[in-house]
Amino acid sequence: MLCTCGSAEKPAEVVEEKPATSVATSSPAYESLSFDRLKHIYENATYMDATFYDLPISINQNETAQIQTTLAGIGSQPMAYRPDCKPIGHIWFQINGKNVEEADIYFEKGCVGYVWYDAGKPAFSNAMTEDGARFYLNIMSQVPEDLR
Predict the structure, then answer these.
(1) What is the pLDDT at residue 60?
(2) 9-35 tens-digit pLDDT
(3) Which end of the chain is less packed: N or C, by CB atoms within 10 Å?
(4) What is the Cα–Cα distance from 30 to 28, expressed in whole angstroms?
(5) 6-11 long-range contacts, Cβ below 8 Å, gap at least 24?
(6) In this structure, is residue 17 part of a structural domain?
(7) Is 107 inside any structural domain?
(8) Total structural domains in the chain?
(9) Its pTM surpasses 0.70
């Protein structure tokens, strides 16, 4: 199954800290994208594309198992969010060539997860699981240090 419910699921936390520019607390900014919508893309997505704003890489997946592994890194709880958080990239899921879901990717202390769009505007959020965080750490570790 795509998401688990209950206390066993822990949102991911990025270990690397960046200097704080102001004192801000993390709190959910949006409700979670519904389980039904996540399940729909889990069962039907045929393509996933992710771009990163400051890294010279992108991720493209067109195999069901790959896409489902990426989706399994999305938690059921809303993402904790600070107003100073900035997305590191954007992700799209397609079914037979049509974009069906898209989200900004957040990956910094206090903001680890996805902010999903609805009708072109941020509307929902989901925390990233620890497995999801490991997925992105693995991707980023493949980028040479001088390009990060």
Answers:
(1) 97
(2) 444 544 343 333 334 456 667 999 999
(3) N
(4) 6
(5) 9/75, 9/76, 9/77, 9/129, 10/129, 10/130, 11/75, 11/77, 11/79, 11/80, 11/112, 11/113, 11/127, 11/128, 11/129
(6) no
(7) yes
(8) 1
(9) yes
Partners of 59 in the beta sheet? 50
Q: What does DSSP assign to residue 145? A: G
Q: Is there a domain that residue 20 lies in? A: no
- Strands 121-127 and 111-118 turn out to be antiparallel
Under 8 Å between Cβ of 89 and 100: no
Give 78-102 pLDDT, tens digit per residue.
Answer: 999 888 999 999 999 999 999 999 9
CATH number of the domain that residue 36 is part of:
2.60.40
Taking only the tens place, the pLDDT of each residue in 37-70 is 999 999 999 999 999 999 999 999 999 999 999 9
Q: Which of 73, 89, 80, 135 is nearest to 109 (CA)?
A: 80
Domain of residue 109, residue span: 27-140
Structural domain contains residue 122: yes
In whole angstroms, give the CA distance from residue 13 to residue 18. Answer: 13
The helix (run of H) or strand (run of E) holding residue 90 is: strand 89-95
